[in-house]
Every structure is written in C-alpha cells, then in structure tokens.
Amino acid sequence: MSEQTNQLLKILITLIGRTTFDEEQVKSIVAPNKNQVKQKKAYNLCDGTQTQRQIAKLVGLDEGNFSKTVKKWIEKGILYRVGEGKESKLLHVFPIN
To answer: Which residues neighbour 26 within 8 Å (Cβ) at sequence distance 6 or greater?
Structure first.
C-alpha cells in the first residue's frame, strides 16, 4: 500500500472516530483515573507505526497488563490492530491531550 493510501486511511479512521466519540469519552476509557499518565502516553503512541511490544517498552508498562489494556481499548472501539501477528501495529481513533 502506498504512503498516500496509508495517510488517507488514517484520516478516515480519525474522522469516523471523532463522529463516534468525543475526546472526553476516549479519555475516560483510556485513563479513568486522572493519574494514569502512562496509559495516555501509550494510547497516543498507537499511531499505526509501532507494535504493542514497542509501545509497552517505550512507556515502561508491563507487557501482559498492556496486552489486557489494548484488548479493552479494541473492544471499546477506540483502537485498531493493523496487520497480523507480533508485527501488527496499533492505531488509535485520534490522539488525546
């Protein structure tokens, strides 16, 4: 797939995400407690360029716990897995502040 196609798909996901969720809804799913800074950082790193393992390592999260968190985010519809297997990338609906 071309880089332009990838960019267009990311734009579409962001647009659909913003019509489905507002930022406060996404924040309440990502970090229900105000002190969950690592979860917010991890979520924002899910920009389609890194694997789950890479993100957990960058943020300093336990891989097993982060795996459960990713599963929850996918079930809630705020995160997508792009690709298959260990090399799949994570893509959020849109970044949060």
So the answer is: 17, 43, 78, 93, 94, 96
Domain architecture of the chain: domains with CATH: 3-92 (1.10.10.10)
Q: What is the pTM of this model?
A: 0.85
Q: How far apart are CA 1 and CA 11, in angstroms?
A: 15
Q: How far apart are CA 62 and CA 56, in angstroms?
A: 7
Please write the tens of the pLDDT for every residue from 64-83: 999 999 999 999 999 999 88
CA 61, CA 31: separation in Å to the nearest integer? 14
